[in-house]
Design goal:
The protein has three domains: 30-62 and 191-223, OB fold (Dihydrolipoamide Acetyltransferase, E2P) (Beta Barrel); 71-184; 226-308, Beta Barrel (Elongation Factor Tu (Ef-tu), domain 3). It has helices at residues 2-17, 64-89, 93-125, 131-160, 164-189, 279-282; strands at residues 21-27, 30-34, 39-44, 51-52, 57-61, 192-194, 199-203, 211-212, 217-223, 228-234, 246-250, 258-265, 286-292, 304-308. With 311 residues, the protein is an alpha+beta fold.
Length: 311
Amino acid sequence: MRVFCVWLCFLLTACQDEAPRIYGTVERDRLTLTAPVGELIAATYVTEGQRVQAGDLLLELDATAAQARVAQRQGELIRASAQLEEITKGARDEELARAQALLTSTQATLEEAANRYERVLRLFNTKVLTEADLDSARAVKITAQAARDRASESLRELVNGARGEQVTQAKAAVDIANAQLTLEQKGLSDLQLRAARAAVVDNLPWHTGDRVTAGTQLISLLMVEKPYVRVYLPSRYLTQVKAGSVLDIWVDGQSIAIPGRVRAIRSQPAYTPYYALNERDRSRLMYLCDIELPESSELPTGLAVEVGMPK
């Protein structure tokens, strides 16, 4: 009888020394890839459960329309660049020669018109010609002089080249065309959905040939790195468990605990707001808590575990 009492006392002491535990599950951050535009799914390169690395091609949307837009923007950029080059280079030698020849021709026409006007004026003074003849000769002379001035200004414009404002506008047109091309190229590359991190394909609801709308979830990934345990922490442990605290994590079938570091504890309770509860009910509040696992941990997502709490 005395031996039984000693054994019972030992068990009670052991039970009192054992740290309390709460239940949680292993989680990993989820990456969701959505459709940037409404298009057909051209190809699917992965399956559910497949492990992928950063940069791996997962799924591709039809790029026919996007490629056409890129080609259009490339043409606009070529045209804008050619216009800028034409403005900055100035006139060709042939254009200068043609303008010079036109100026010479108009100068000769003006000289002839001026000589004719002088002859008409002398004959008018001697009463041989009428005033109408004099007015006609004067009009021809003025017209020839205007043509000479116009040819002279055209030649000077070609020699001086484009104005600074015109060059600025042409450069701005090139910048706009280049930006539009970059935007369309970005849209084209977005049609190829790639993994941003090492992950496991968790959900693939669509298949090749399906037409999806913009914003549709195409692929859901679970990150391989940085697993963590998510638990609901009772309010009575808030004064003992803080961000950075190390807690033991127990897995069924394993005799050695895995150390985990508390990453974050939500500031708001997960259940009924505290201000709607009395003192007794407030002790039942739960706070969502994430506990980081070691990088080497390969526990499967969703596995139920136990987390040891401070005594």
